[in-house]
Structure formats: structure tokens, C-alpha cells
Amino acid sequence: MSIVNAKEIMIEGAKNGYAVGAFNVTDLLQFKAVVEAAIEKKAPVIVQTSVKPSQFLGTQLMVNIYRTLAESAPVPVCLHLDHCTDIEYCKKCSDAGYTNIMIDASKHPFEENIRQTKAVVDYAHSVGNISVEGELGTVGGVEDQIKVAEDEAQLANPEQSVEFVERTGVDIFAPAIGTAHGVYKTKNPKIDFERMATIHKMLNGNGIKTPLVVHGGTGLPDDYIVKLLQAGGAKFNVSTELKHTLIDAKWEYINAHRDEYDPGKLDVFVRDATRKAVMGWMDKLGCNGKA
Ligand code: 13P
Question: According to the model, what pLDDT value does residue 151 have?
Fold first, then answer.
């Protein structure tokens, strides 16, 4: 019932002026906390796994956790593979039951990016109800196995964005607009809102067909989030914040309870901190109460 791909919930959001939060998780505890936050907020949600945690826990285990949580959740839940550079692993996750796949061939020249992205689109669509995300330009910072120096990050060209989407058939599109993975080095990062709005208009001016993704959610100022929503952002990716929440909450609890050896209590503390962070994002994105 609640198993959905990313495109369908993003289109619903884009039409109704809200965005869907997409949260990277590394373990079961975070996974459960994200889904519980969505249930509490009555919000659609995308749970994301980067390649390393997906391979570490095992593709099928990730999907089994997903199916168990999503099937009983009264809200739509999507499982997304984030920034995968390996076509074969994209195919494996499509077969296993992921419902959104991101092939990240953005480091390659334009034609090769199109070739690889289209190969994954064709495969995922042949498997079933799976949407595919592609990226053009490069997002600075570090995300899992991908590292891009800030001064080498390249923004997406609007005309090329349209060509990329048309030729690959991607369902959702991540144009690089200056956002970055990790913690922003300045309070006011330089984001090209206009570029985002132009690409959105060119792709979706006659009705939402290819909703847009905002990478690098952690640390974006609130007014930037509002502007990005207005410019067409329909999925906001948040990873570093949840990693910090996980580690910081563990430190905090252990420091305060140095003589206690009850992992269950530590888990509850971490879960609650994660839920709080996720629910905060849902309020900012306006997706609370929308499921
Ligand atoms: P942050 O780590 O900056 O939140 O970015 C997440 C992201 O874009 C994952 O694809």
C-alpha cells in the first residue's frame, strides 16, 4: 500500500506547493526513526541509502527492512539508492526492490552521462514501478564515495538540462545549482536560485513532468529553503545532518550515562533525536499533513 516511487509523490508535492524530504540512513535505527517521523507528521517520505551502507548491510536486507516498515505505514514511503556510479549496482537495487534509483554519471562528459543514465532508466523501467534520478553538473563536497572539490563543482546548463532529460527519460532531475554535500563553509552559500527556476520552467512550465531535486540540504538557511521550494525544488536531500545527529546523540547519552549498559535506552535517545531532526525538516518543506 505505502510502497511508492519518488516521482509520484514529488509530482503531488510540486503541484501543491510542498516538497518531500529525502533522508539518508545508515542503519535500521535511523530507517525506523525516519518512517516513524513521517507517520507522526502524516507526510510522504523518501528514505535514502548511499552505496556503501547499502552494500555493508546488504541490498536485500535494506529492501526487506523497507518493505516491512513501509507496508504497515499509513503514509507513502520510497526507498532511494543515492549517488550510485555503478550501473550494475543500480540494476541490482532495481531487481531487489528499491523504488527510486539515482545513477550519478555527472562526473563524465555530457554524452557519456546521457549514455549511462539512459541505460539505468531503460533497465529500471523494464523491471517495474521504479523512478530514476539523474544529475547534470556536479555537486561540491563529499557524499559517500563521491568527492568534488568546491571550486571544481559545475552548475547545470539549462538548455543541456532539457536535452539531458529528454534523451535519458529520467523521471526526476538534479541540476547542480551551487548547493553542496556536507557542512557549508559560509552562512550564506552561493546558490543559483534563478538557474533552478529557469530549469524548472523549461522542464515543467506546461505541467509537472520532471520534478527537481535539491542536493546538499544540511545547513541550508530557512529562507533559502523557501526560495528553492518556489524555484521548483520537490525533493530535498538531507544526509550530513542525520549523521551528525546519530553520532552526537550517542556521545551525549554515553557521556551522561557512563555507568549504564543498556543499549535499548541509548537507542531510544538516538531514535528520538533523529525523529526530531526529520520532523523539523518536514515542517520546513510543508509536507506535514499531506499524506
Ligand atoms: P547533505 O549531506 O549536505 O545533507 O546532502 C545530502 C545529499 O544531497 C545526498 O544526496
Answer: 66
Domain-embedded: residue 1: no
Distance (angstroms) between ligand 1 centre and the Cα of 260 equals 34
Residue 71 lies in a domain: yes
pLDDT for the residue numbered 152 = 64
Atom of ligand 1 nearest to the CA of 217: 4
Residue nearest to atom 5 of ligand 1 (CA): 216
Per-residue pLDDT at 1: 56
132: its cell numbers? 530514476
By three-state DSSP, how is residue 59 classified? helix
Q: What is the number of structural domains in the chain?
A: 1
Which structural domain, as residue segments, surrounds residue 205? 6-285
pLDDT on residue 145: 77
- Residue 82 bears catalytic tag: yes
Among 33, 30, 43, which residue's Cα sits nearest to residue 4?
Answer: 43
Pocket-forming residues, ligand 1, beta carbon under 6 Å: 24, 82-83, 143, 181-182, 215-218, 237-241
Q: What is the pLDDT of residue 191?
A: 95
In a domain, 161, yes or no: yes
CA of 274 to the centre of ligand 1 (A): 16
Most ligand 1 atoms within 8 A of CB, residue of 177, 213, 218, 236 to mutate:
218
Instruction: Determine the distance separating the centroid of ligand 1 and the alpha carbon of 160, expressed in angstroms.
Output: 23
What CATH number does the domain containing 202 carry? 3.20.20.70
269 three-state secondary structure? helix
Where the chain has pLDDT below 70, the residues are 1, 150-152
- Is 273 inside a domain boundary? yes
CA of 52 to the centre of ligand 1 (A): 15
As a 3-state breakdown, the chain gives helix, strand, coil percent values, each rounded to 5, of: 50, 20, 30
What's the pLDDT score for residue 245?
98
